[in-house]
Design goal:
2 helices; single chain; 138 residues; alpha+beta; elongated
Length: 138
């Protein structure tokens, strides 16, 4: 490997990551990864692995990674919403121009329910925002 390896490796899991300390300074010159903690992005929990005590440097790196990961996930969520809008538009065009009756029958009810649910949530949230704005103006 040409580039120098980082001191820490984060194995991403659904709700956080397993944190490993990377060691290349051993007799065999092999890469060794020692798991030092498990982190949960959702609740901010950092659990040391086994009897380990995390150093201030470990905690600083982990906290920094958690902040970056939270920002990355937030950006991805917004990007997913934009993609969903594109997919809805593409689905509309397909349904209007290419779909057969059998294809439409296969998903129409499910899609209509999902769209109704989304519309209900969006309308309610919009009304809440408008009411907050009205209350703040008074």
């Amino acid at each position: 490997m040409g580039a120098e390896l980082p001191d820490y490796y984060f194995r991403v899991k659904e709700n956080g990551a397993a944190v490993f300390k990377v060691d290349t300074e051993n007799r065999q010159r092999r890469i060794e990864m020692d798991q030092i903690a498990v982190i949960n992005i959702n609740n901010g929990q950092i659990k040391p692995q086994g009897d380990r005590t995390l150093s201030d440097a470990d905690l600083a790196v982990i906290q920094s990674w958690m902040e970056e990961r939270t920002e990355t996930l937030a950006r991805r969520t917004v990007d997913d919403i934009h993609r969903a809008i594109d997919h809805l538009n593409l689905t509309t065009q397909w349904a209007q121009s290419k779909a057969t009756d059998e294809q439409l029958e296969a998903f129409t009810d499910e899609l209509l329910l999902a769209m109704h649910d989304l519309r209900s949530v969006l309308v309610r949230k919009k009304a809440d925002r408008l009411m907050k704005g009205k209350d703040a103006a008074e």
